[in-house]
Amino acid sequence: MQAAGGAPLSGGDAAPRPPRARRVALLVTVAALVYALDVVSKFLVVRFLEHKEPVTLVPGALVLNVIRNPGAAFSIGTGMTIVFTLIAVVVVVAILRTARQLRSLPWAVTLGLLLGGAVGNLTDRIFRSPAPLQGHVVDFIQVFPVTGFPVFNLADSAIVCGGVLAVFLAWRGYQIDGSRQSEEPVDG
Predict the structure, then answer these.
(1) Alpha-carbon gap, residue 58 to 102, rounded angstroms
(2) Is residue 139 among the annotated active site residues?
């Protein structure tokens, strides 16, 4: 006999899985927050700082310097804007398809960061000049300017943080479905 929701009445080996709907809602919430912060920050820097001298917030460490980036991260592949647009679309679709199996809280946050960042930069590529699907991404955060570290934006930050989290979760064996891969080999 089973309890409501199909859970076994006896103390079986399988732990109950967290509800997928709540994890997907968290993914969407994180993605929407990242996207909103990215869009608002880009709107503000374009409106108030573009075509002006860079603004130093922390001398030698943090400067707001608005540039338009036609390439990928770190201005790589500046002549391939349309390719990066298509790659971003594929990433967004892949994350949305993966969400169907999502039952892990850490993966929900990770995928939310990646999705929000990808959609933020994709919005620039679709709607900003010079042309639809070839738009240049607005970058404005410059850390340690004397090092020549590339200028980036909040979407880029979310993508990098999400990528680091994804590597960490995979390394620790956390699965998207909420299970954890053991380090011991299974005889079979």
Answers:
(1) 40
(2) yes
Contacts 24+ apart (CB under 8 A), 1-9: none
**Mean of all residue pLDDT scores within the chain:** 87
Dihedral of alpha carbons 108, 110, 115, 120, sign: positive
- Could you read off the pLDDT of 60-97 as tens digits, one per residue? 999 999 999 887 665 666 667 778 788 889 999 999 99
Question: What's the predicted TM-score (pTM) here?
Answer: 0.83
Cα-trace Rg, the chain: 21
Question: Given 13, 124, 156, 187, which residue is catalytic?
Answer: 156
Positions of E strands within 43-176: 55-58, 62-69, 137-143
Query: Do the beta carbons of residue 19 and residue 178 sit within 8 Å?
Result: no
Helix-helix angle 81-98:105-127, to 10 degrees: 150
Question: Cβ–Cβ contacts within 10 Å for residue 181, how many?
Answer: 11
**Catalytic residue, candidates 38, 124, 139, 177:** 139
Instruction: Give me the residue label for tokens 């509800």.
Output: 19
- pLDDT for 64 equals 97
Catalytic residue check, 124:
no
